[in-house]
Amino acid sequence: MQNPTKYTQQIKQKAHELGFDFCGISKAGFLEEEAPRLENWLKANQHGKMQYMENHFDKRLDPRLLVDDAKSVVSLLFNYYPDQRLPEGKDDIKLSKYAYGTDYHFVIKDKLKHFLSFIHQEIGEVGGRAFVDSAPVMDKVWAKKGGLGWIGKHSNLINKKQGSFFFIAELIIDLELEYDHEIKDYCGTCTRCIDACPTGAIVEPFVVDGSKCISYFTIELKEAIPIDMRGKFDNWVFGCDVCQDVCPWNRFSKPHQEPHFNLHPDLQHFTNADWQEITEDVFKEIFKKSPLKRTKFDGLRRNVEFLG
């Protein structure tokens, strides 16, 4: 297996066939620049009650500890920007756009499984693992290293051609490939995301205090939401897209082509009253394959009630 150029072309072509919008490849190694940033973020308790962020510190910084003799990180972006959207008026209850349809873990894991099978069939005995937000992998950093964009002041990856509404996945494999180059940061002096954040979670450019983020409160936090946050949620009950919605680069967002991510038909005419009166049976029916399963019925009810 000594033809990095050919293998790189095959992998990038297959990524496109599987529906990934962008594919970038970087050399697996220790993330030296990220180590002190991650350490400082954890020491400042900016991960809140997300204890899992403290685990596997070394593995987060070095993919060779996840895959023996890893040589390459293949980063993949999959668009989820919707064509049809929920109403997002001042008084409308809101869901993060990534949660409109089927849980992305199911959809993308299936594609990654096919991807690894293809590599084994076409290239040979390649060792590796596939990840989609499911292991201690710093996916945004690897996507940046693979030339797929830069990390914006809101800490999300921004792609120059299509904005930031992407799921990020990766294959970590023990195969030498041709590596892409990082691109520059194009945020410039813009501070729209910082200025618009309803809870002030972007505490300085490129640093998000996760414990102040609406997504954290509505998804990760399992206990009561602090009362001093009342009135600051801008009607979001699962996740929050404010920092992405105001980003000028998202004027280049294009509707995705994945039917699984379309808005669930039952949500198309959901009113605030429907959210407030939702029963556990209705929740289980509408959200049985949805990311909202993560917050469970009681969590969603807590979030809706917190809006007052």
Automatic annotation (TrEMBL):
Its EC number is 1.17.99.6. It is found in: Cytoplasm. Keywords: 4Fe-4S, Cobalamin, Cobalt, Cytoplasm, Iron, Iron-sulfur, Metal-binding, Oxidoreductase, Queuosine biosynthesis, tRNA processing. The active site is at residue 133. GO terms for biological process: tRNA queuosine(34) biosynthetic process. Its main location: cytoplasm. The keyword Protein transport does not apply. [4Fe-4S] cluster 2 binds at residues 197, 213, 240, 243. TRNA binds at residue 222. One of its GO terms (cellular component) is cytoplasm. Belongs to the QueG family. This is Epoxyqueuosine reductase.
